[in-house]
Amino acid sequence: MMHIAGLCVAVLVGLLMTFNGILMLASPRLWFRLPDWVGFQGSLRYSTSRSAVEVRFMGAGILAVIALVLYCMAQ
């Protein structure tokens, strides 16, 4: 039973991270308008175009890590 609950939590976290990564990569301004608990924003603040580039890099990094984990699980 705990195994199933753990898998459900892992899938939920993976989906939320994928959503955040895609949104960070596509539109940092829209990502900053999400509620804090959805966007995992913490102390980030959107003030310059430099921060938009940083958010896009973080989104690309999140998606790359998720792709790497899925690739390793498939083998």
General description of the model:
The protein is mainly α and about 80 residues long. It has one domain (about 1-75). Helices cover about 80% and strands about 0% of the residues. It has helices at about 1-25, 30, 35-40, 50-75. The model has no long low-confidence stretch (mean pLDDT about 85).
Count of alpha/pi helices: 4
Average pLDDT metric: 85
Order of helices and strands: HHHH
Rounded to the nearest angstrom, the distance between the terminal CA atoms is 26 Å
* Radius of gyration computed on alpha carbons: 14 Å
Helix- and strand-based class? mainly alpha
**DSSP strand (E) fraction?**
under 5%
Which bin fits the share of residues in helices? over 70%
Q: Uncertain segments of ≥5 residues (pLDDT<50)?
A: none
Task: List the topology elements.
Blueprint lengths: L1 H25 L1 H5 L3 H4 L9 H26 L1
Helix pairs in contact: 1-4
Describe the structure in brief:
The protein is mostly helical and 75 residues long. It has helices at residues 2-26, 28-32, 36-39, 49-74.
Which features does this protein show?
single chain, mainly alpha, 75 residues, flat, 80% helix
